[in-house]
Every structure is written in structure tokens, then in C-alpha cells.
């Protein structure tokens, strides 16, 4: 099995990829950080700052940036995949021939691929041909803006191979970042993919002027529908009661640093979806995830009313007020 003494690459220099590169170095592992933009790599190496995604956080000297994927992956025994969910396949198809046979791949993306309805670990094994035991996923209540400045946080490393999960855990453990391990990849991934959709709903409610009672109801019922889907796919319900489920959900639904919640809030205040996407300048995973999550749920005959409402607002022109009316008007039943 790949050990922690080999080279480590982080593929993707967004806020989260850059933050985890910093965590790895501060935990004792030098990192090659790949970015598709050569100018960004040059600025990181020259100044120690990622000017686009983490402009105020100084990166340690052990972070070496490059726009050369082959150079980043050369000899890497652990590779963190930090590109967005819907872009992962195209990137991985280019990178797969460059991967070492016993590499550990760690997915950082939270989403379900449109069309195939694959979870990210499924996509990775499909594209690379590597066994599931070599693929881990990292998920939890992890806002990059907080972790990048050393605020306390915890996460989950899920992998079918417990020893491999522990290796990744040890590589990322610092005084402020505490990884836990489990073997429930399905539950960990479904929690991460669906929470962005529920965060959009929370943001919409807040933007429309609704208060904390509404937020609590959305979070609670959102967790119920996420758990229903995860269990239908074969996950353990207790995974969704932990960091990868309720922990990630609460952080994303309540934090002003959450892109999905902030995006939803703008919609709740009356902004249009297309205009808000154009003005946001950053990826809002929940907008695409709501479509694939709902399609996946439908294929397993799982009811997800909150996700359905978010999908209708984002893709079918339903107003936020109409969405809230639909949810309130649903038939009463036992919890």
C-alpha cells in the first residue's frame, strides 16, 4: 500500500485545494499544488499567496505550485483531486495515464455527476480502472476560509481500505485539523453532495425574510431526505448523523461563508438564477447537484421534496415564494 513517505500532489488550486495543501505541509508533508493557470502557479511560488482564491493567507514554503500536471503527478503516491465535481471526469481522463499503479486518490469534490449519476468515487474508479480500495473521499464541515487560518475543524476520510484511510488521516492531522476515518464511502459522499442543495434552500428562506425556526426545519427535514437517499444506496444511517452528514449540513446551511447559502439568499431576495450565477464569479455546486441528486433519488424511488423545490427554482423558473408555498402545503404526516 502507498505510504505517506512518497510525493503528494493536490490537483486543483481553488480555495479548498490550496487550504489542504497548506494543511498537509503544516502536518509535515511537502506538496505539489497543480493549477491550470501558469500565472497563478508563478505567483504562488514567488509570493507565497494564491491571489485568486486565498489572497490573504500565507502558504508555507513546502507548497510548490505548478501548471504542469505530469510534473505534479510524477512519483506521487497520494493525489488529492480538488477540481469541481462536473469537471472531474475530463481532468481525470487526462491524468489517469500519469498515475502510479498503487496511488491513493482522495476525492475532495462533493457532487453527483450529471448524466451518469455517479458518485465521485465511482467516477474515479471508472475512469482510472483502479480498485475502490485505492480511492478515499474527504468530506465534512470544512469551510476553507476558516481552516486556512488555523481555526479548529474536523473531517472524515472514508475508504474501503481502513489502513489506507489511516495513512491519509495521519498525513492531514494537525493541531487545528482533526480527520476521522470510516469505511462508509456511500454515506460520506451522499452527505457531501446533498448538503449543498439543502443549503440553497436555507439561503432562499433567509433571503425571503424567514427566520431561525424555518432554518431549523429545513436543516432537520433536509437531513431526513439525505439519509433516506443514502440508506437506499447502501449507506449506514449513523454516518449521516456524524461529521459527513449533519456536521457538514449545519456548517453549509448556516455560515455566511457558504457559497450555496449565500447564492440561495440572493435568490430569496428576488434575484434571477442566471444573473446571480453570472455575478457570483464562483462555482455554486448545489445548482448543478440538485439536478443530479434528484435524478438519482428518482431512480431509487426516494422522495426528496426540499431538493425538488430547489431544482424547480434553479432550473424550471419557480419563484422562491412559490417553492415555500409548495413545501408548506404538503400533506401532513408523522415525522
Automatic annotation (TrEMBL):
Domain of life: Bacteria
Location(s), subcellular: Cytoplasm
Annotated catalysed reactions: sn-glycerol 3-phosphate + NADP(+) = dihydroxyacetone phosphate + NADPH + H(+); sn-glycerol 3-phosphate + NAD(+) = dihydroxyacetone phosphate + NADH + H(+)
Binding residues annotated for sn-glycerol 3-phosphate, in chain numbering: 110, 140, 195, 248, 258-260
Pathway the protein takes part in: Membrane lipid metabolism; glycerophospholipid metabolism
EC annotation from Swiss-Prot or TrEMBL: 1.1.1.94
PROSITE patterns reported in the protein's UniProt record: NAD_G3PDH (PS00957)
Function summary: Catalyzes the reduction of the glycolytic intermediate dihydroxyacetone phosphate (DHAP) to sn-glycerol 3-phosphate (G3P), the key precursor for phospholipid synthesis.
UniProt family annotation: Belongs to the NAD-dependent glycerol-3-phosphate dehydrogenase family.
NCBIfam families: PRK00094.1-2 (NF000940), PRK00094.1-4 (NF000942)
UniProt protein name: Glycerol-3-phosphate dehydrogenase [NAD(P)+]
Organism of derivation: Mycolicibacillus parakoreensis
Phylogenetic placement of the source organism: Bacteria, Bacillati, Actinomycetota, Actinomycetes, Mycobacteriales
